[in-house]
Amino acid sequence: VPYCSSIPTAYESHFWRASIDASWKFIELLAKDESVADIPIRGDVTLRTIASHELRPGFEQRSARATAYMYPFCGEQRRLEIIAVLMTMLFLFDGKFARICSENCADLFPSPTTSSNSPLQSYLNAVITDIHASDRRAGNGGAEVHAEMRKTFSYLRPEATLTSVEEYLRFRRQNVCAGFVFASIKFSIASSVDMHQPHLVQIMTWAADHLSIVNDLYSYAKEARAFNDKSCPDLINVVSVLQRVTDAPDDESALQMAFALLLQREEWMFEKLTNLRSTGALDEETWTFLRAVWACLSGNVMYSMTCERYGGEAARI
């Protein structure tokens, strides 16, 4: 499986084992929690059945390693554990939402004052408490992580046929939960940086595109199979958009065009960062954040390349 990036280095957090254990604990509690037994996801499938299925052998090869690859500069084990739980929620429910369950799923991610005797809710309450406690010690990204996570619980599909690549990417920046990823980067390094400062707007847009295109490149084969055998009702992927708007003769041609879009974003980001460095426009805290963003992007490539979730058994390491 190719490494689809010009970024030469990917990293892994030395807290990787703790992040996998935290993900496992959350899914184990979800699989046992009777309060979510009847929340429908699709047809007769419930949250509990999805969680129980995820506990089968090979757990860490599907999605659990993504956190350690995408947030390698995280300075505290507990912060990475928190991100791992939230990332697991995103992966677990990805593509499985129905409108009927979105509010119920959001309720799984409580406000800091929510009380419950359920082991699952107690576990999630502790996650929320520790998010805000982390902010009191250093940085202010925890509140942003909490807010962005709750935004992800929606049934996000295009309202109409997407007629251009740019239109698709505008949609996909939200669909890929880029806001949550960037807030988690900030939280992981205990930063107080303003992610929305004018100098960063274009870079963060390209970074969101990068997350989207990488996900689409590596998941296309799996998604196309699901669409063709009618187990998935739609094919939301930049490769299929490129095929449609360019009349590409085959999948391989569209995949190559998607890869070119990815390399283009990397070149644009590198040129922008080089210019900002030469002008001295950014402070050191912002540069620390941008280095973590760069590492997150290459980590997402590394994870996508090696996970069984996209590449099947052959992709495992």
From TrEMBL:
Which SUPFAM superfamilies does the entry mention? Terpenoid synthases
Please report the name of this protein according to its UniProt entry.
Terpenoid synthase
Q: Name one Pfam family in it.
A: Terpene_syn_C_2
What Gene3D superfamilies does the annotation carry? Farnesyl Diphosphate Synthase
Annotated InterPro entries: Isoprenoid_synthase_dom_sf
Q: Which domain of life is it from?
A: Eukaryota
Origin species: Lophiostoma macrostomum CBS 122681
What is the phylogenetic placement of the source species in the record?
Eukaryota, Fungi, Dikarya, Ascomycota, Pezizomycotina
